[in-house]
Amino acid sequence: MIIFLYGPDTYRSRQKLNEIIEHYKKVHKSGLNLKYFDDENLNFQDFKDEVRQTSMFAEKKLIILAEAFPNSEFKEKFLKGAKIFRDAEDVILFYETGQIPEKDSLFDFLIKQAKCQEFKPLEGQRLRNWIKKEFEKYQTGIENKALDKLIEFVGSNLWQMSNEIRKLVSYRAPRAARRRDKSLLNLRSAPPRSVAEGGKENEVLFDHKSKYKNIEISSGDIELLVKPKIETDIFKTIDALALKDKKQALGLIHKHLEKGDSPLYLLSMINFQFRNL
């Protein structure tokens, strides 16, 4: 069987890859038949020998081929024996994060013969839903305006987004806990009531998950803790200007404007950076 994971969203594709590996390790305890070939050690003969070699534990092998597409020699030889590999009992997994040419014989074969999953960058409502679910893992909410600002600042880079979410939750949780502790002190000084009588404080006192409960990220939290993407990108623009690379600089400025960045803000940032050189 052949599996093909590909696309520029490396965060989600890496998650899927790790999920497959972890499932394999649970089923096949020895772990000796998990093999990994990447672009640096991707030799077709080594791969072929691995497929042919019989496992001493009578286990299926999971053979991961990472970034195989740039290796033209490997592709050519793989396609010659493609049917044999397709029908093999072992699992062969192609993991590709780079740009794949429109007309590629290996890509055409995998699309037709493998179990494929493409990972495109999340946009629009799909990105919003993903972010909300990530916050929900920490029992944390986010205001709609704060969500808009977070996407404006970070974009669709899920590696950075994941880090920013953890940072925001870590910042808000202790503050929420301190407010809750003050409330609990007041509650403990009052006679206890049952939940049926409206005594919700009892739920809080004995809920082990209450650390993150009722936390909601605000726009102020985003502005305080998250660095806007434009401030990261602006350094590339400034470098191009400093190197007098007009083509690169103009191209980057056009990208800023196409994204809706304010021309006055761009000018002020460029001016600020050059003053501090």
TrEMBL record:
One of its GO terms (cellular component) is DNA polymerase III complex. The keyword Transcription regulation does not apply. It comes from Candidatus Nealsonbacteria bacterium CG01_land_8_20_14_3_00_12. Keywords: DNA replication, DNA-directed DNA polymerase, Nucleotidyltransferase, Transferase. The keyword Transferase applies. InterPro entries: DNA_pol3_delta_N, DNA_polIII_delta, P-loop_NTPase. GO terms for molecular function: DNA binding; DNA-directed DNA polymerase activity. Pfam families: DNA_pol3_delta. Residues 4-116 form the DNA polymerase III delta N-terminal domain. This is DNA polymerase III delta N-terminal domain-containing protein. GO terms for biological process: DNA-templated DNA replication.
